[in-house]
Design brief:
The chain contains 5 helices and 7 strands. The chain is of the alpha/beta class. The chain has a single domain, classed as Maf protein (Alpha-Beta Complex), CATH 3.90.950.10.
Length: 193
């Protein structure tokens, strides 16, 4: 039987990452774009988990197929973990969002930060959660043309490259979302037994 899944995001970059990481498990990926669904789920939860649950359950009930949703964010230590769960809602686009963070950090020497993701998977057996966070720092200037969101300004610990300077496969190995997806994949394989 073919395994279908809906990735509940309008973000093309996220969609690609999920498809790349899970292509050996699912036979067919649906995206909100591919099914022309422009519904915006109000992400008014108080945590990444709440917001991922809101999206996953909404689209599961709407389409009655397995759904993967995530909520991710950047937390900058010197800015009291700003922007956190509001990471996608500050500024009007990715470039503006990155510049807002760089401007706020202009006079800070401590540039430590976290990239965090919470993935929710839902199917007819239940709702399951996968979380990961990666420590790193904010670069002085945006660097790299790969990735999306805050990738051009986030350098994970142990690397001298921003996520946007990495090849997509290298980013998946090290990123918050990539590692959380690995946890999801391990769970799905175990569940299938």
């Amino acid at each position: 039987m073919k395994k279908n899944v809906l990735i509940a995001t309008q973000n093309v970059g996220k969609q690609k990452e999920f498809e790349q990481a899970l292509s050996n498990y699912f036979d067919h990926f649906h995206s909100l774009k591919s099914i022309n669904d422009v519904d915006e789920v109000i992400e008014d939860g108080s945590s990444y988990k709440d917001n991922a649950h809101l999206k996953a359950t909404y689209f599961y009930h709407k389409y009655q197929m397995p759904v993967i949703a995530d909520d991710s964010g950047l937390e900058v230590i010197a800015l009291d973990n700003y922007p956190g769960i509001y990471s996608a809602r500050i500024g009007n686009n990715d470039t503006e969002r990155r510049q807002l963070i760089l401007n706020k950090l202009k006079h800070h020497t401590i540039r430590e930060a976290w990239m965090i993701t919470h993935i929710t998977y839902i199917d007819d057996t239940g709702i399951y959660d996968f979380y990961h966070r990666v420590q790193g720092k904010i670069s002085i200037l945006p660097r790299g043309n790969n990735g999306f969101g805050y990738d051009p300004i986030f350098i994970p610990h142990g690397s001298d490259k921003t996520f946007a300077e990495m090849a997509p496969s290298d980013k998946l190995e090290q990123s918050h979302r990539g590692i959380a997806i690995k946890k999801l994949l391990a769970f799905l394989k175990e569940k299938k037994r």
